[in-house]
Amino acid sequence: MKLKTKILFLSAAAFLSACATGPVLAPSGAFVAEPFTLNLNQNWSAFKRKSEGVQGAALTREGLDLNMLAVYMIEEGHDLKAGKGGTQEEVDYKSGMSQLELVEFATASLASLDMKNIEVSSVETTTFAGEDGVGFDFQGFYESGLAAKGIMRVSETDMGLAMGIYVAPTRVYYDRDAEEARRALTSARL
């Protein structure tokens, strides 16, 4: 192989590997999911996200449809799924939202992730990512019809809206990982 061909091949390989996305190990202990740091008691796989107006990571042990622990920072004028100017059904985040509006925004964010028939319970003021916010439990159904339960935490920060989510099927996965998820969300810091 000629030197020019080798250089071209190596350049293409380097470019493709830089574009590749996939999970990274989120080992137990402190894990950084920019701009958050979480303390994990067990290993997870993390899918980091940085797109226009949204950054953070979704963590899972068996697959995002089976259990998802996620932390996201959403900038003003953006939503969780589409980023800036989502679909008509989605609501963009605006600073200064009331607690009720934050719950409605968080519920709309879950719906944008294909959750259906979402019921909210146990709404309470809480601290998330070092800021005063609101938290609640929820239940609903995945688009496939599988029943799911979850935990949501949101707080307004100088960077935007901090959102923490844990969701898993009601049978097996939710109960198995809910306490670990609560601990991780409680530990979240910017």
TrEMBL record:
Signal peptide (from-to): 1-26
Entry keyword set: Signal
Keyword match Signal: yes
Name of the molecule in the record: Uncharacterized protein
Organism: Algimonas porphyrae
